[in-house]
Specification:
With about 475 residues, the chain is an alpha/beta fold. The chain folds into 2 domains: about 10-250 and about 460-475, Rossmann fold (3-Layer(aba) Sandwich); about 250-455, Rossmann fold (3-Layer(aba) Sandwich), CATH 3.40.50. It has 17 helices and 16 strands. The chain has helices at about 40-45, 65-70, 95-110, 125-155, 170-175, 200-210, 220-235, 250-260, 260-270, 290-305, 325-345, 360-370, 385-395, 410-415, 425-435, 440-455, 460-470; strands at about 10-15, 20-25, 30-35, 55-60, 75, 85-90, 160, 180-185, 215-220, 240-245, 275-285, 310-320, 355-360, 375, 400-405, 420. The strands form 3 sheets. An 8-stranded mixed beta sheet has the order 5-6-4-1-7-8-9-10, with helices on both faces. Strands 13-12-11-14-15-16 form a 6-stranded parallel beta sheet, with helices on both faces. The longest helix has 28 residues, at about 125-155. The termini are close together.
């Protein structure tokens, strides 16, 4: 895979995503304040705005966002440390709930990550059809209309749609502007065509036709791209082009973060209680992240290697996610129960082998990145997994990455990680032990190789690669 050497010019871009790079609120004194947008996608794309002339269209997520949207069409993000123009869309609340919770998160997310147990779920009754028509399709149309209005102001701009929330919008734009340059990057896995039969025919057909309206559909791995092409063929849809460009990060941002006061303070707290050997996992509390199986694997390793008792600990830093959905609240309960079980079985003399923090605390996560001996990423399926790239970049202990073979990053980082089957508890336990006992020279070789790769395949190059593809005839776009 070639390095991303090019840099994006000041070409105009319209970035379209559900969450934006900024969100607004009121502080205790009633003054409007801006905060960086939450969510992995918004975080990943923030580096993009430093390298292009960006108008970013996103949903209004807070009441103050809605107030901002009512006051002005575009917000100058540069005043708040994010150099772009931001347009916030204040959707009708019930339509947005149906689009975001009922369709995007409770259905599409589970479908895209193979999370449905098809013997009993899902059950798509009349309320789901209403959620699709009056929620998902309606909000996608609102996004598409906003894109069309921005193209009226900047007809030369390229449009970069992001992820599974917006699968229908490109077709609406294409219908009104046949010559628009449209790219859609899919940050999640893409299942094989048989699994798409979870959705009623008109819905799965509309999703594939929506994506096929783009000039290029991008994926993190050849595996997801191949599945997409296969499912399009199965449903009689002909995409113009698809490509593989694993997203990068902004190394300079993480270099700064690693030495920031907030991270250094968190690192000092971590060092005060650090075990001799530290296994770290940083995830959202999402069933796709496979957290409970990971705890079971850690327990099995302790059972099989009692010589590590008192020497090795796991620190799990979990960002609460989608707690309005019952599947997610139940999963948090299962996580907490698994933690109690591990600590009751193996804790002794006040020492607990597994420490859990459920909070949105990114400085704490970066501090843990710096200190891990093993980074444990065992996702059921993941579009990419940025943690596997971020953590080795700032790590100071030549930590080893144990990585699920179903994470998109595995295709990219395979030569330098210890791969695991996310369903194989015994295999994960063995991989953790292998990583903890790996010779120092081999640990260093692997971590420095990942760091070099991450630095040479950054967010600016990822953007440049996509724009270069938009400027080429579809038949000449390589898949790798």
């Amino acid at each position: 895979m070639p390095g991303y050497g090019a840099r994006v010019s000041e070409r105009k871009l319209i970035v379209v995503s559900n969450r934006g790079p900024l969100s607004f609120d009121r502080d205790a004194s009633g003054v409007r304040v801006a905060r960086r947008g939450a969510g992995g996608l918004a975080t990943a794309l923030r580096g993009l705005v430093a390298h292009a002339d960006v108008t970013w269209i996103a949903s209004a997520m807070t009441e103050e966002d809605r107030a901002v949207a009512a006051e002005q069409r575009l917000v100058d993000g540069g005043e708040h440390g994010v150099p772009c123009r931001l347009r916030l869309l204040a959707h009708e609340p019930e339509a947005y709930r149906r689009y975001y919770e009922d369709v995007s998160n409770a259905t599409l997310w589970f479908l895209l990550h193979y999370l449905f147990g098809l013997g009993s779920e899902p059950e798509l009754g009349p309320s789901f059809r209403e959620a699709w028509d009056d929620g998902y399709a309606r909000v996608n149309t609102t996004f598409a209309r906003a894109v069309l209005e921005e193209l009226d102001h900047a007809p030369e701009a390229a449009v970069l749609f992001q992820d599974y929330h917006l699968f229908l919008a490109p077709a609406v734009v294409r219908d009104r502007r046949p010559d628009a340059r449209l790219n859609h990057f899919v940050h999640v896995p893409w299942p094989q065509s048989e699994y798409w039969h979870v959705l009623p025919e008109r819905m799965r057909q509309a999703l594939h036709e929506g994506l096929a309206a783009n000039d290029v559909v991008g994926f993190h791995t050849e595996r997801w791209r191949r599945n997409f092409e296969q499912s399009c063929s199965a449903f009689g849809v002909a995409p113009r082009a698809s490509s593989v460009n694993p997203i990068g990060i902004d190394p300079a941002e993480f270099d700064r973060l690693g030495e920031s006061d907030a991270v250094v303070a968190e690192e000092e707290r971590l060092l005060a209680d650090r075990p001799e050997l530290l296994v770290v996992r940083v995830d959202r509390t999402d069933p796709s992240k496979n957290i409970v199986r990971g705890f079971h694997a850690f327990a099995l390793m302790l059972e099989q290697h009692p010589e590590l008792l008192g020497r090795v600990g796991m620190l799990a830093l979990l960002d609460p996610s989608r707690q309005s959905l019952p599947q997610y609240t139940a999963y948090v309960e299962a996580i907490e129960e698994a933690v109690r079980d591990v600590n009751e079985r193996f804790g002794r003399d006040g020492w607990q082998p597994l420490v859990l923090h459920v909070a949105d605390n990114f400085p704490q996560s970066v501090a843990a990145y710096k200190q891990f001996d093993v980074l444990f990423v065992n996702a059921v399926f993941d579009g990419l997994n940025l943690v596997a790239k971020e953590a080795p970049l700032v790590n100071r202990r030549d930590g080893v990455v144990v990585l699920s073979e179903n994470a998109g990053a595995f295709e990219e980082l395979r030569p330098w990680v210890v791969g695991v089957n996310p369903f194989d508890i015994a295999g994960q336990a063995a991989a953790l032990h292998e990583a903890l006992t790996m010779p120092p020279a081999e640990r260093r070789r692997r971590r420095t190789a990942i760091e070099a790769h991450v630095r040479s395949h950054d967010i600016a190059g990822w953007t440049a690669a996509q724009l270069a593809e938009l400027d080429r005839p579809p038949s000449t776009i390589p898949s790798r």
